[in-house]
Amino acid sequence: MLSFHLLKRNWRSGELKLLSLSIILAVTVLAAISVFTSRLQSTLINESNSVLGADAVINGSQLHNPEWEALAEEANVKHTRAVNFASMVFAGDEMHLASVKAVDAGYPLRGHFEISKQAFTFEASAIQKILQGPAQGEAWVDSRMLPLLKIKMGDQVYVGELPLRITHVLIAEPDSSSPFSMFGARLLMSYQDLPATQVIQPGSRIEYKWLLSSDSQSDLQNFLKKLKPQLSEHQAIRDVNDSQERVGRTLQTSQQFLLLTAVIAVLLAGVAISIAARQFSERHTDQVALMKSLGASAAKVRQLYFFQLFILAAIASAIGLLIGEAMQQLIAISVQKAYQIRLGDAQWLAYLRSYASGFICLIFFALPALWYLPSVSPLKFCAAN
Amino acid sequence: MTDSIERPTIVEAKAITKRVETQEGELVILHPVDLVVAQGESLAITGASGSGKSTLLGILAGLDLPTSGDVIINQQIITHMDEEGRAKVRADYVGFIFQSFQLLPGLTALENVMLPLELRGDKQARSKAENFLTRVGLAQRFQHYPQQLSGGEQQRVAIARAFACEPKILFADEPTGNLDSHTGEKIIELLFSLNADQGATLILITHEERLAQRCQRRIQLAAGELVANENSATNKQD
Ligand SMILES: Nc1ncnc2c1ncn2[C@@H]1O[C@H](COP(=O)(O)OP(=O)(O)OP(=O)(O)O)[C@@H](O)[C@H]1O
Ligand SMILES: [Mg+2]
Predict the structure, then answer these.
(1) Which of A102, B130, B161, B184 holds its CA 20 to 30 A away from the CA of A229?
(2) For residue A259, which of A36, A24, A44, A23 has the smallest C-alpha distance?
């Protein structure tokens, strides 16, 4: 294909280097930022959905009223329970004041757990997403609890009187907030195992949660309206909207900042592209005039240059995407290390958008300079000069 | 021997004029010019500087349009065509040799010769280009860039490029104008020997008596008017 040969020759003569470098730069910056933003977004959205583990939660220091469960079912509202408390956890001679959470069947109503057989991992392949808590007799713990108690996966720990086998480490959980979390590492267990531990005595400091969700938000709101007058002063409703708003704001601010950076970078790259394109166009005026005198029509010239630039953009954008992806991963690794979070996956749209941006930049910044190239008139005889 | 009359016409100009608007008013570059060139003929256009030679050649070759009048190449009235149509005619029938060679600096000698062949989608572009570069004596210089070649060598590349497409009509504007007389002579020899092989029609502008005499016919322009149209005293030598 002639365009490809011409591209190779033009590349060899160095005329395309600035142009391709500026496309690579634009795509690199955009890819790094938009892919990273997309991962951040998916992380935060995941977290905001599961921040409560439900659409709404009634918090309290007392067990909820069993009558309410009947009311909830009547109102088409799903419900489940969770309990937070601090308790000593024993393994041989070692002990640790853990932040225990016991969850009932159906927990979480929104979001999911992320668990692993491998302690301290961030590797996606080693992490399992699961929609329910531990079975009876099992416990999932923070990775750090293993060295604290000098135990390993599969060992037993005691919560009060009850031995539990550690089957997984807990990587992420919905509703990770707990008034007791400052005490220590998390231990997650089944609500059904709770009585056997005998740690819950009248007067223990305990946080009960009644989690609610419904496929119909109006059903849920109606139910909450009915429930509100019956709540004691120790019970409060938390709504997913509160947390989503907070997460949304954080996300928006960080996104705006990152996108501003991207826009500045792309504009700079755009200036470079348009300078390069003007230079390219000037250098190619003679070439086009000659090609036309050799019998190439304007349409042929347009097609030849269009394909050259298309191939160039395709290759340069691919390179930019690769570099951007590498940069994004470097940033993500350091963010994950620094904040001990696991970033979600980017949407493939973020990659597509960055790849396409190479072409868009070329169209916006280079086309004006190149537009009239095909209409250069064929080379005239200019012996006089 | 004036055998040009019996041969079919390949290029014809009918009352072509060229006028341009300048700040000092209208400038007439060509007064009505009529010209008939037969197939296989060699024609020299002479005349003082500024007499309109390059303008006439550009119009005959379909690179430029006359203000009035028609140009007919191989029975096609190119002055009635749009730019695309004229480009097609150029691709099919016409080759050029420029005074300033007009090689593309980023391309090797071989690629420069290949370019017009590639533009018309010739599958044998490479072998044809190699063949013609060899015929102009540049077999060792395929991969050299124009700036690595002397003026004479560059013009040989340009000649190879022009002949490689085997055009029916070859236009040349002072092909030896930028060369010393010794090199110019060699280029003239090359031009005529290749032309003898291919039997192309040759229309060239020159200031050099030597070159004009090699042509079968010469016309002279003065201030945009055809003042002489005569067969050369010395006919084409073998
Ligand atoms: N586009 C134009 N606008 C104004 N004047 C023009 C234009 N084109 C040509 N001319 C003028 O027309 C006259 C003829 O030009 P042309 O290039 O045809 O001459 P020439 O015979 O080839 O001269 P030379 O031997 O120096 O190459 C010149 O005076 C030139 O300045
Ligand atoms: Mg001239």
Answers:
(1) A102
(2) A36
Sheet architecture: strand order including B68-73: B25-38, B9-22, B68-73, B76-77
Beta bridge partners of residue A208, listed in sequence order: A60, A83
Residues of chain B found within 8 Å of residue A296, distances taken between Cβ atoms = 87, 91, 119
**What residues does the ion ligand 2 have nearby, CB within 5 Å?**
A 383-384; B 54
A137 in helix, strand or coil?
A: coil
Confidence of residue B35 (pLDDT cuts 50, 70, 90): very high
Note the residue count of chain B: 238
Of the candidates A96, A94, A77, A78, the one whose C-alpha atom is nearest the C-alpha of residue A86 is: A96
Is B187 a pocket residue for ligand 1 (Cβ < 6 Å)? no
User: In ligand 1, which atom is closest to the CA atom of B22?
Assistant: 4
Residue whose CB lies within 8 A of the most ligand 1 atoms, among B53, B171, B225, B226, for a mutation test: B53
Name the pTM for this structure.
0.68
Handedness of CA A127, A130, A135, A141 (dihedral sign): positive
Q: Residue A139 has which token pair?
A: 């416990």
Residues 103-162 of B with CB under 8 A from A: 104-107, 111, 115-116, 118-121
Q: What is the mean pLDDT of residues B145-158?
A: 90
Across residues A158-168, what is the average pLDDT?
Answer: 94
Confidence tier at A178 by pLDDT (50, 70, 90): low
The full DSSP string for A194-244 is HHHH----TT--EEEEEEEE-S-HHHHHHHHHHHGGG--TT-EEEEHHHHH
Rounded CA gap, A117 and B194, in Å?
Answer: 83
Closest Cα to atom 29, ligand 1: which residue? Answer: B50
Report CA(B91)–ligand 1 centroid distance (Å). Answer: 26
CB-based contact B54 A293, cutoff 8 Å: no
* ipTM field: 0.85
- How do the domains of chain A map onto residue ranges? 2-48+247-384, 63-231
Give the list of residues 6+ apart from residue B51 with CB closer than 8 angstroms, or none.
B221, B222, B223, B224
Q: Which helix (H) or strand (E) holds A148?
A: helix A145-149
Please check the confidence at residue A48 and state whether its pLDDT lies above 80.
Answer: no
Contact A295 B88 (CB under 8 A): yes
Q: Whose CA is nearest to atom 7 of ligand 1?
A: B20
Q: Identify the weakest region by mean pLDDT among A50-64, A105-119, A163-177, B138-152.
A: A50-64
What confidence tens digit (pLDDT) does each residue in A223-242 have?
989 888 888 888 888 776 66
pLDDT tens digit sequence for B177-236:
887 888 888 888 888 888 888 888 999 999 888 888 889 999 999 988 888 777 765 544
Question: Cis ω on the peptide bond leading into residue A174 (within 30° of 0)?
Answer: no
> Hunting for tokens 């929104």 — which residue is that?
A110
User: B202 in ligand 1 pocket by Cβ < 6 Å?
Assistant: no
In total, chain A counts a number of residues equal to 385
Q: Which tokens in the block code for residue A160?
A: 């009060």
Count CB neighbours of A4 within 10 A: 11
Check residue A64 and give its pLDDT.
Answer: 66
- Residue A293 CA to ligand 2 center (angstroms) comes to 16
